[in-house]
Structures are given as C-alpha cells and as structure tokens.
C-alpha cells in the first residue's frame, strides 16, 4: 500500500515531515509537492488535478490518500472519480463545496501580499490567485456517494472556517468517522503533528 500525503495551499511537501516520521508506514509514504507537479504549466485546479490523477493512475497498487485543505480537495476528487483505486482516505480541513466568499476574501488578501511570502511554497503569487479562482465552482455534494473506501475526516478544534463542512462531510460519506484535534487550528500537520500521526496510525491499523 502506498500512502500519498497532499499539503495545503501555502505549504509544501516538507510540511508533512514530522507526521510521516512518527508514522509506521514511513517507507511507503510519499509527500507530494503540488507546485513541482505543475511547474512550467498554467496553474489552474483542472491542470493540478489532471497531473495528480496521472500520478495516482501510474501506481500499480492501491493507494491511501491523506490531504489537508487543497490537498484534501484533490484527494476527495480522485476518490470520487476512481473509487476502485483508493483504499482509504483521510481528509483534513477539506471542503466538499467551495466556500466562494472565503476564497474571494483570500484572493483579496493575496493581492496585497508581497511575492516573497509565496516563494517557499513553490508557487507564484498569481498562481495562488488563479488557483483559487478556478476552484470556486467545485461542488462534490452530489458525488460523495461514489466514495466507497473507509474515510477519516479530521479538523482542528480552532479551525472555525472548516469545522462545519468537515462534520457535514463525515456525515455524508458512507464509511467515515470524524475526529477533532484539540487546541489546534487549520494547519494540523504543522501545529499538532504527533497527535495527527497517532490518529492516522489508529485509522491505518483499522483498515
């Protein structure tokens, strides 16, 4: 089994390092760098998802996808489109219907931020803006029944922007459970890596 970890927008593949080091499946874990996947291409959600799908399709065995925020959206999208390929799914602070108002607010803030604040992510400033713009119409509400694998939905206690959607998502998926990580915000993999790793290990051992 291959375990693929997908970071959020504003993070990079290294954002998972503390989590994967604490997990028993380290040898089978791959922390995907989303920016490198679309390097040299026009950064849109469809381009990113297409490239990510090709990578997953190339795996000869079943995969477990663990994604945070943007990474969670990609993981959910792929599990809907390829239920036979995904053996387990972990969705952290993931939305299944894009919060358009929040995305517009984020983009407004991005426009005033200096380019230097985006460099460590591998994306350019306007990659962020274009990516958010092309995600606004995403809505998986009517497709959640396509997901057939066990699902663990996680959200930080302090992540007010995503908690409601995470609980709704867990209730809407067939074989899912919801876990909240106390005293933690949106970036669970950075704020509470050991607690997250413990939840992941418990989930992986149960499937």
From TrEMBL:
Enumerate the spans annotated as AB hydrolase-1 domain. 5-198
Alphabetical list of Gene3D superfamilies matching this protein? alpha/beta hydrolase (3.40.50.1820)
A Pfam family annotated for this UniProt entry: Abhydrolase_6
UniProt protein name: AB hydrolase-1 domain-containing protein
């Amino acid at each position: 089994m291959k375990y693929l970890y997908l970071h959020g927008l504003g993070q990079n593949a290294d954002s998972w390092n503390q989590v994967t080091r604490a997990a028993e499946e380290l040898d089978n874990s791959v922390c995907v760098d989303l920016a490198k996947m679309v390097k040299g291409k026009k950064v849109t959600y469809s381009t990113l998802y297409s490239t990510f799908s090709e990578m997953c399709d190339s795996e000869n065995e079943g995969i477990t996808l663990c994604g945070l925020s943007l990474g969670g959206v990609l993981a959910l999208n792929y599990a809907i489109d390829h239920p036979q390929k995904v053996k387990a799914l972990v969705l952290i602070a993931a939305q299944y219907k894009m919060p358009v108002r929040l995305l517009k607010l984020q983009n407004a803030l991005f426009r005033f931020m200096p380019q230097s604040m985006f460099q460590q992510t591998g994306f350019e400033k306007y990659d962020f803006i274009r990516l958010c713009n092309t995600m606004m119409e995403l809505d998986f509400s009517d497709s959640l029944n396509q997901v057939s694998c066990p699902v663990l939905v996680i959200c930080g206690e302090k992540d007010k922007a995503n908690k409601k959607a995470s609980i709704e998502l867990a209730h809407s998926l067939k074989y899912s459970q919801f876990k909240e990580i106390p005293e933690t915000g949106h970036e669970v993999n950075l704020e509470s890596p050991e607690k997250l790793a413990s939840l992941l290990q418990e989930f992986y051992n149960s499937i």
